Amino acid sequence: MNPLVAAMVKFAILGTAGEVVAKLITKSKISITKIIHSAISWAILGVIIKYAFIGFNGFVHELVNHHYLPSGKIYEAFFKSFFTNAMFGPWLVIIHRFLDNLPKLKIPTEGLKGAMLTLLWFWVPAHTITFSLPGEWQITLAAVWSFVLGLILGIFANLKKKKEVNNA
After folding, report:
1. Residue among 17, 5, 35 nearest 100 (CA)
2. Fewest CB atoms less than 10 Å from the CB: which of 8, 73, 92, 140?
3. Alpha-carbon distance 82 to 119, whole Å?
4. How many CB atoms lie within 10 A of CB 58?
5. CA contacts within 13 A on the Cβ side of 148
6. pLDDT tens figures, 97-151
7. How many Å separate Cα 3 from the centre of its chain?
């Protein structure tokens, strides 16, 4: 299968599944229209992410070759993750927000800070693991991480909702 099509399919399925599970956990409304829109958005993100992974792999490879970064599998995996999330991550968050809200023709700023913080506490460690794997597994694991993050965020949103109800 074409690697870009494979990235589209993996992200469309797993990214959307993460959102659906998060909605189920928080007992939020789920519509088939939203699921289709989400799958299309995730498919687009999958292609963008595939390009970024290839590009930052080359970026870090060249920095190591020029002795600007230490060599070694774990160092290189960390720096690929760090640079991908530091230089590309914020743009991906904004693009994701834009695609999610395309029908509304706006980019919501609510929750944007929290979304950016996931780059530090979730994505840098997760992608360090991702980039330590062979290239053919990296997009698959990145899509799985999208599902996992949706699950984590759904659980935290549910706990926050319960806490607010208990404090009321």
Report:
1. 35
2. 73
3. 9
4. 11
5. 11
6. 889 888 887 767 778 898 899 999 999 999 999 999 999 999 999 999 999 998 8
7. 18
Q: Is 31 left (phi over 0), alpha (psi -120 to 50) or beta?
A: beta
pTM, full prediction: 0.89
CA pair distance 22, 20, nearest whole angstrom: 5
Residues near 125 by beta carbon (within 8 Å), at least 6 away in sequence: 81
* Domain coordinates in residue numbering, the chain: 3-167
Contact 21, 150 (CB under 8 A): yes
- Under the banding of pLDDT at 50, 70 and 90, the label for residue 88 is very high
Structure tokens at 120: 């530090």
Amino acid at 101: N
Tokens linked to 53 = 């992974």
Residue positions counted in the chain: 168
